[in-house]
Structure formats: structure tokens, C-alpha cells
């Protein structure tokens, strides 16, 4: 495993396992146990995923010392306020059955993010969270949050894949000491990504899968990546990316297929914010 050092000195694994859209408790526990046994040390869940309890059970069952694991969860917009964050964090910690989490993120740039961030700063100071960060924040939102609060986010988890590469965003975050982390590493399987001819050519050269090439590409860019699968063999394959290295030519070919295409929505778009607010009964 390779690690990055966050802006507060905490070490974070560069390759992680995510559990988005694995709501079945038995399945979630099984695949997280398999991921940990495979070698994953970063496990990423969220309040909104509804599977924190299953993740907690998997952590206990896997038999790996807690200090070797890096557990992330996230605050949903329904509790995006000072008091809401305190309450939601306590509930997440209880469901995970842990004494602390390694990384706690504001899941969306929606609601009272400043109030919630102050709560995270306090929980961080108390040692209940080892690092605090955000998800889906744009550069201006990162700047605003950082400049008017005590603690700069350690991580920003954003959509990042071969069709939405975000090099300029990564450069800005790096200049501020914020680690970029990707979700959607495989573009949600859209745009025929697994059979893309450029990726296929590179994968064949190394006797690897296109998924492995995409994860290796993120690793070499200094991006913390998350992958997800309920298939144990794919879980193993997605972790098997440390025995080959893409050349500068390979990296350039992948850079050339960027189209700045999102698989979700622009979090800087007013309609996106209104849609997200609609999930918790808020209307403009």
C-alpha cells in the first residue's frame, strides 16, 4: 500500500474501498471483510449510504488492528448545521462501533456548511476525528470555507475519472495543501469506459484490466482513489495495481481522452443545489 500525508500529518492510504450503493447489510459486511482481507486499509462509507453499521461489523470481524485502518464517513445535507453535525456524528460513530473515525467529510456543499464545519473543528480538537474534509466542493467553495474558519480541509472528495480529469482543480488543491480524492473512478461504467480503445491498448500491454489501468493512472497522479465491487475477484483485481507502472506516454494518451464530462451534475449549478435540497424537503 502507498500512503499520502495529509496537511495535519495524518497518513492516508492512496487506494480505498467504497460502499456506495451496497445497502444490503449482509452483502456490505461480506464485501468489506473481503476488501480488508485483500489488503485495503481505507474504507469509505457515509451517513446517506445506510450501511455504516454493516461496515462497523466488518471491521470487527476482519481481525485487523484498528490503528491499521483508515475509516471515512460523511455528514449528509439533512444534518448540515452545527447541532445537526454533532448529533449525526455521534450516531455514525455508534453505528460504526468505533471510538473515532479517521476522516469525516461534509458530503455536499449544501446547507449550513459553516455551522457544520465549526462542529467538525470541535470534534477534531477533541480527537474524535483524526482529519476533517469535504466532498464535492469547488475551488471557490474550498477557498471560502478555508479562509473564514480555523482548519483548512485535509481532503476534498470529488468526481474524477478519465473523462473528467480535473487537473486544474487538483493543482489548486495541492497549492493549498488539500488532498484530492476521487469518487466515480470508473465513470459509473458510462461512455463504454471499460472497452475504451485507448485504455484497452494500455491494459493489454501490461496484461491488466482497463479498471486496473484507470486506478493506476489515479495513483500516479497523486489522487486517492475509491473503487467498489460486490464481486470478490474484482475486489482483488482492483487492489492489484502496485506491480506495474504507466509510462509518460501512457499517461499522455489517457490525458488526451479527457472530455470534462460529468456522470452526475455540476455542484456549482443552481438547479443541482435545488434538487439536492429537495431531498430533505427544502424548496426555493
Which key phrases capture this entry?
oxidoreductase activity, acting on the CH-OH group of donors, NAD or NADP as acceptor, 284 residues, 10 strands, TIM Barrel, globular, NADP_OxRdtase_dom, single chain, eight-stranded parallel β-sheet, 11 helices, alpha/beta
Give the structure's gist in a few sentences:
This protein has 284 residues and is an alpha/beta fold. The chain has helices at residues 25-38, 52-62, 82-96, 113-125, 139-147, 167-175, 197-206, 210-221, 232-239, 248-255, 270-278; strands at 3-5, 11-13, 15-18, 42-44, 70-75, 103-106, 132-135, 155-159, 179-183, 225-227.
How does this model look, in words?
This protein has 284 residues and is an alpha/beta fold. It has eleven helices and ten strands. Helix 1 (25-38) runs parallel beside helix 9. The radius of gyration is 18 Å and the shape is globular. Helix 3 (82-96) links the parallel strand 5 (70-75) and strand 6 (103-106). It has helices at 25-38, 52-62, 82-96, 113-125, 139-147, 167-175, 197-206, 210-221, 232-239, 248-255, 270-278, and strands at residues 3-5, 11-13, 15-18, 42-44, 70-75, 103-106, 132-135, 155-159, 179-183, 225-227. It has an eight-stranded parallel beta sheet. Strands 1-2 form a two-stranded antiparallel sheet. It has a single domain (3-278), classed as NADP-dependent oxidoreductase domain (TIM Barrel, Alpha-Beta Barrel). The protein starts with a strand and ends in a 6-residue tail after the last helix. Belongs to the aldo/keto reductase family. It comes from Trichococcus pasteurii.
Amino acid at each position: 500500500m502507498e500512503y499520502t500525508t495529509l496537511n495535519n500529518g495524518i497518513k492516508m492510504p492512496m487506494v480505498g474501498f467504497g460502499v456506495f450503493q451496497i445497502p444490503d447489510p449482509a452483502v456490505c459486511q461480506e464485501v468489506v471483510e473481503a476488501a480488508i482481507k485483500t489488503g485495503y486499509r481505507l474504507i469509505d462509507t457515509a451517513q446517506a449510504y445506510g450501511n455504516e453499521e454493516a461496515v462497523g461489523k466488518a471491521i470487527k470481524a476482519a481481525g485487523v488492528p484498528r490503528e491499521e485502518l483508515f475509516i471515512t464517513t460523511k455528514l449528509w445535507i439533512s444534518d448540515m448545521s452545527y447541532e445537526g453535525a454533532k448529533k449525526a456524528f455521534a450516531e455514525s460513530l455508534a453505528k460504526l462501533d468505533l471510538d473515532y473515525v479517521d476522516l469525516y467529510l461534509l458530503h455536499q456543499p449544501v446547507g449550513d456548511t459553516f455551522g457544520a464545519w465549526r462542529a467538525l473543528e470541535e470534534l477534531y480538537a477533541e480527537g474524535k476525528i483524526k482529519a476533517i474534509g469535504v466532498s464535492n466542493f469547488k475551488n471557490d467553495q474550498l477557498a471560502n470555507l478555508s479562509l473564514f474558519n480555523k482548519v483548512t480541509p485535509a481532503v476534498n472528495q470529488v468526481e474524477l475519472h478519465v473523462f473528467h480529469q480535473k487537473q486544474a482543480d487538483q493543482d489548486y488543491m495541492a497549492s493549498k495543501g488539500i488532498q484530492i480524492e476521487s469518487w466515480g473512478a470508473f465513470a459509473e461504467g458510462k461512455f463504454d469506459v471499460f472497452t475504451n480503445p485507448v485504455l484497452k491498448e494500455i491494459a493489454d500491454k501490461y496484461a491488466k484490466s482497463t479498471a486496473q489501468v484507470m486506478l493506476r493512472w489515479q495513483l500516479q497522479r497523486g489522487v486517492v482513489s475509491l473503487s467498489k465491487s460486490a464481486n470478490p475477484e474484482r475486489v482483488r483485481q482492483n487492489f492489484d495495481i502496485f506491480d506495474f507502472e504507466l509510462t509518460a506516454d501512457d499517461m499522455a494518451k489517457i490525458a488526451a481522452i479527457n472530455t470534462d464530462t460529468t456522470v452526475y451534475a455540476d455542484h456549482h449549478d443552481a438547479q443541482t443545489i435545488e434538487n439536492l435540497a429537495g431531498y430533505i424537503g427544502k424548496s426555493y
